[in-house]
Design a protein that fits this description.
By secondary structure, the protein is of the alpha/beta class. The chain has one domain: Rossmann fold, CATH 3.40.50. It is about 35% helix and about 20% strand. Strands 1-3-4-2-5-6-7 form a seven-stranded mixed sheet, with helices on both faces. β5, α3 and β6 form a beta-alpha-beta unit. The two termini are about 15 Å apart.
Length: about 200
């Protein structure tokens, strides 16, 4: 304990935007980030990696269509999965995404965990439940990372966390990409996962 985990990040390199399973990397451990469109995923990844534009913050939610591989310390990947659940996209694009994600979960043998990001103000939507079912089907471990906690008061945050705990979710990390809250705790969790 007491380690400054952010200082352990020496090199960060965007490696590839993958649109089909043949483009996936599987040579090193992977930590994947998943969440609804507009949940603050790109902002949090950029804050985590200390970069401003590594993960693209889309002006049009639901328009990131690739799985993006970011190599950290030349030893593991942060994998930015496409945001899901945006109502204005076509059924055709939605089905392509689902196939891409299904392929990723099915073929990525070095995937260690999925960090399931949720806007703390929204909590578990039907689309979040779909992702949970997806991960359970593929037997992939996940933990909940609540984003945008700066948007709520401390009491409101505690109420939202209590709701999740009542539903059986106990491994929860609170973050804000804008305010850089929870970054050290998230890195601590990631390094712990990588070491086990």
């Amino acid at each position: 304990m007491g380690e400054n985990y952010t200082r352990l990040i020496k090199t960060v390199e965007f490696k590839k935007a993958a649109y089909k399973k043949e483009d996936f990397f599987d040579d090193l451990p992977q930590i994947a980030f998943a969440g609804r469109s507009n949940c603050g995923k790109s902002t949090l990844i950029n804050a985590l990696l200390g970069r401003k534009k590594l993960a693209k913050v889309s002006s049009k939610p639901g328009y990131t269509r690739s799985i993006n591989f970011i190599l950290v310390n030349k030893s593991f990947y942060i994998v930015d999965l496409p945001g899901f659940g945006y109502a204005k996209i076509s059924k055709k694009i939605k089905s392509l995404w689902e196939k891409l994600l299904g392929d990723y979960f099915n073929y990525s043998k070095n995937l260690k965990i999925v960090l399931h990001l949720m806007d703390i103000r929204r909590l578990i939507t039907e689309k979040d439940k779909e992702l949970m079912d997806f991960l359970q089907y593929y037997n992939i471990p996940s933990i909940i990372v609540l984003t945008k906690i700066d948007k709520l008061s401390k009491n409101q945050r505690n109420n939202q966390v209590s709701k999740l705990k009542k539903q059986g979710f106990n491994d929860i990390i609170l973050t804000s990409g804008i305010k850089k809250i929870g970054i050290e705790e998230l890195w601590e969790k990631i390094f712990h996962i990588l070491e086990n």
